[in-house]
Each structure stands twice: as structure tokens, then as C-alpha cells.
């Protein structure tokens, strides 16, 4: 009897210890709370983490190059992350509207809120490194409202990251200086903002729009593009390698046959890369074509 009572007492102590530690885990001191940020894609998550550093945790909903943001739909885990977050960053302009299915405390869109553009505009805004600099500064302002005590750190982090991004804006400026009104063709409008900044004119927008929307490009559009390749009317062809439309593969083959350079780009960030190295690689392909070393 005595022995049994001793066991019960021990058990009671263990249980209450678990309850006490459990409670203390659930209510951490305010000063150590990390900002919980969500991004619709990992390249936007990278910007959030760069500004927050150790003052926050980032959850990127699309964190794989194998998931197409155009066709994605929200599942339970990311929906909970959005609900529990302090801030959500999305691309906007119709690209990742699935994020608005769940109410969030704060939601910033790169398109509407920062670039001041509306749905219908080209959605691939991350191909504007100049705009990404504005995104980090906007994030610094938003995070400063959530945790004013870390304001100086957020702005310093944003500026440090933007300094790295200057490698990209400088490279784009160099490419533009060496481009004399070149014309190009693209498989999809993914790279168009970068091309515009470089001063290149896309001559097959109608064709590219069809591929982006997953419909068949018209016979006339294909024939025109084939002629443009054969007659070297384009400086290069931009291929989104994440698309596997047979018509694109045939056009790329034709480019190789007629020695028209092909620039390979992706819609989402390839595994093991960061935003800077991803963009730099793609921009350098254009620079190398200009130098004649493709
Ligand atoms: Zn796209």
C-alpha cells in the first residue's frame, strides 16, 4: 500500500512537471518571439528571410521547381501556416490568388501593392531585380510595424541584400548598353521583364501567350517563327525549360540547326540555387551571346 502511494506521488510529480513545461513552451517571452512570415514561392521567401535574418521564420508554400504556381492549389498545411503567420508575401496580379482563400493578418502583393500594376499585366515580376529591391524595403517597413524594436536591423538587412542585387541591375544595364535594338523570340512570356530591361524586343508575343496558357499556338504563328529562325531575324530564342511542349522542342532543334543561340530560363527557382545565382546565370547567357561566346 505504501509502495503504491509512493508510485502515485511520483507519477503526479512527473505529470505536473510536463504540464508546467508544456505551458511555458506555449507562452514564450514576448522579446524572443520570432516573426512568422509566409511567401507563396521560395524566391519571395528568400527576400523575407534576408530581411528578417534571426528575427523571424519563413515558410515558402512552393519550395520546389517541380510545382507549377499557375496550377497550384492550397492544401491544409500551408493554409494553417497562413492563418498563424504575421505577414504573407505573394506575387499578386492573378498569379497566386489561391493564397487569399485563407484570411491572413497582413498580406502584401508585389504586383498591386509594390509595383502598382493590375491583373492582366505580365505576372513574372521576379524578373525585375529593381522591383525586388523595393520588395525588401517594403518588407523592412512592414516587419518594423510588427516588431519596432528591430527596425534598424530590418533596414540594414534589406540594404545589404539590395547591395547584392545591384550585381543583377548592373549586369542588365551592361547588356542594354551592348544591345542595338535586338529582336528576340520566346517560348513563354516568363523572361519578358528582363528582356525589356535589356532593351530587346519580343516579336512573337501571340505565340508565347498561347504556350503560357497551355493552348496550341496557331499554324501561322509557328510558321512565322520558323521563318524568323531560318532567316536569323532574332538575336536569340528564349526557352522556358520547365515547359515540355513538343512544338518548343522542335523550335529549339531548329535554332541549333540554324545556329540561333538559345537562352534557357525557368519559371521557378531550380533546386540548390538562390535568387541571385539563378538570375545571374540566365542574364549571363545573354551577355555571352553578345560577346559571341554562346
Ligand atoms: Zn508563368
From TrEMBL:
GO cellular component, one term: cell envelope
GO molecular function terms attached to this record: metal ion binding
Subcellular location: Cell envelope
Bilayer-crossing regions: 6-25
Gene3D superfamilies: Nitrogenase molybdenum iron protein domain
PANTHER family: HIGH-AFFINITY ZINC UPTAKE SYSTEM PROTEIN ZNUA-RELATED, METAL-BINDING PROTEIN HI_0362-RELATED
Protein name, as recorded: ABC transporter substrate-binding protein
Organism: Ligilactobacillus saerimneri 30a
Amino acid at each position: 500500500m505504501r509502495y503504491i502511494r509512493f508510485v502515485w506521488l511520483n507519477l503526479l510529480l512527473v505529470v505536473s512537471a510536463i504540464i508546467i513545461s508544456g505551458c511555458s513552451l506555449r507562452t514564450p517571452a514576448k522579446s524572443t518571439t520570432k516573426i512568422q512570415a509566409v511567401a507563396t514561392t521560395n524566391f519571395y521567401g528568400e527576400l523575407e528571410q534576408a530581411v528578417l535574418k534571426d528575427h523571424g521564420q519563413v515558410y515558402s508554400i512552393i519550395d520546389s521547381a517541380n510545382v507549377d504556381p499557375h496550377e497550384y492549389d492550397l492544401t491544409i498545411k500551408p493554409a494553417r501556416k497562413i492563418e498563424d503567420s504575421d505577414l504573407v508575401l505573394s506575387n499578386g496580379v492573378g498569379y497566386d490568388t489561391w493564397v487569399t482563400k485563407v484570411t491572413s493578418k497582413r498580406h502584401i502583393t508585389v504586383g498591386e501593392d509594390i509595383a502598382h500594376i493590375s491583373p492582366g499585366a505580365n505576372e513574372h515580376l521576379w524578373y525585375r531585380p529593381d522591383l525586388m529591391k523595393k520588395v525588401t524595403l517594403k518588407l523592412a517597413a512592414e516587419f518594423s510595424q510588427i516588431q519596432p524594436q528591430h527596425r534598424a536591423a530590418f533596414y540594414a538587412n534589406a540594404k545589404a541584400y539590395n547591395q547584392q542585387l545591384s550585381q543583377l541591375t548592373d549586369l542588365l544595364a551592361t547588356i542594354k548598353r551592348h544591345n542595338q535594338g535586338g529582336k528576340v523570340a520566346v517560348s513563354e512570356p516568363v523572361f519578358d521583364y528582363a528582356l525589356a530591361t535589356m532593351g530587346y524586343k519580343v516579336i512573337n508575343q501571340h505565340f508565347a501567350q498561347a504556350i503560357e496558357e497551355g493552348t496550341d499556338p496557331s499554324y501561322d504563328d509557328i510558321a512565322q517563327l520558323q521563318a524568323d529562325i531560318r532567316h536569323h531575324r532574332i538575336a536569340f530564342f528564349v526557352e522556358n525549360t520547365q515547359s515540355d511542349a513538343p512544338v518548343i522542342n522542335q523550335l529549339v532543334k531548329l535554332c541549333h540547326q540554324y545556329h540561333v543561340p538559345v537562352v534557357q530560363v525557368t519559371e521557378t527557382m531550380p533546386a540548390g540555387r538562390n535568387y541571385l545565382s539563378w538570375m545571374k546565370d540566365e542574364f549571363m547567357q545573354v551577355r555571352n551571346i553578345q560577346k559571341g561566346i554562346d
